[in-house]
Amino acid sequence: MSVTKTIIGMRNKILTGIAIFGIILGLGSAYFMKLRPKSEPPAFKPASNPYRSGIYANGIIESAQQSGANVNMYPEVSGTVMKILVSEGQQVRRGEPLLVLDDTVQRSTAESAKAGVAVAKATLAGVQAQYDKLKASWQLDQRSVSRDALDTAENAIRSSKANLELARKQFDAASALLGKYTLTAHENGTILAINTSPGSYISSQGGYNSYTSGYVPVIVMGNPDNNLQVRCYVDEILIQRLPEPKRLSASMSIRGTTISIPLKFVRFQPNVTPKIELSSQRTERVDVRVLPLIFSFNKPENVTLYPGQLVDIYIGEQAAKNK
């Protein structure tokens, strides 16, 4: 009996110890679960609204243009890129060649058309000589040549002249098309992006971009002075809250910094469109529509900005001037 009581007593002590340990573990877990780690300070101060009732909008920096946005260039013909004659950031003049496509087939076509012109000229010279002989003989003795033979020779001249004119037109068309295998600048500007490389195949739709799974412009050009503007997109439900253009004020915050740059209103783009411009995703589906606004700004000397950079825009109303 004494052994049994000893065993029971030891078991009770063990169970009691386990229970006490469980209670302590539960209380400790509850205490540590209530503790919250100290949050890290933000890497930079988020942009704040400088206006009393300002409107926020996403913005994108782009090369300043009198109308539209950047100049997107596409070739008029398809082919393999043989040479790229410019580099990104380079300033180019109107008419300067930018890119050369493989024109082997078209050059062969132009050479064949040129040879066709030479053959047509030789044929015309031959029938003209034959006609001159017949006419000279007929003038000496009308009985020596029949009128039908003379008319046939004259018709042959007309036919040869028509063939020569057609051959010349074919040669001119082939030569003009041959010139399209060199992509040239239509205006003075700065090369912002080259979206192809030698050996790549491009078409009038542009070059295929494996990252966006779509076609992009072969070359993107900006203005020659490297002036920048910012285009922002205002949600359609906020359009009615926009101040009048003459009272409109705005500021731009550079992401990742505390830099804020005042903006000057330039124009509206009066066309409300789906909000897909900033992502460039052709398959994106959104229900939000936005109104584009364009602003100009003076770039500070110590700030680096590039076209395509996203910024935060706050739009407000200028304070009324005391009369």
Features:
323 residues; alpha+beta; Elongation Factor Tu (Ef-tu), domain 3; Helix Hairpins; six-stranded antiparallel beta barrel; four-stranded antiparallel beta sheet; elongated
Please report which band the strand proportion falls in: under 5%, 5-15%, 15-25%, 25-35%, 35-45% or over 45%.
25-35%
Main beta sheet: strand number and arrangement? 6 strands, antiparallel, barrel
Count the E strands: 17
Q: Please, how many domains?
A: 3
* Name of the top-level CATH class of the largest domain: Mainly Beta
The gross shape turns out to be: elongated
Contiguous runs where pLDDT drops below 50 for at least 5 residues: none
Strand order of the largest sheet: 1-12-16-14-13-17
CATH 4th-level superfamily of the largest domain: Efflux pump adaptor protein, beta barrel domain
Q: Predict the CATH topology of the largest domain.
A: Elongation Factor Tu (Ef-tu), domain 3
Textual characterization of the structure:
- The protein has 3 helices and 17 strands.
- By secondary structure, the protein is α+β, with helices and mostly antiparallel strands.
- It folds into 3 domains: 39 residues; 116 residues, Elongation Factor Tu (Ef-tu), domain 3, CATH 2.40.30.170; 76 residues, Orthogonal Bundle (Helix Hairpins).
- Helix 2 runs antiparallel to helix 3.
- The chain is elongated, with a radius of gyration of 40 Å.
- The model has no long low-confidence stretch (mean pLDDT 83).
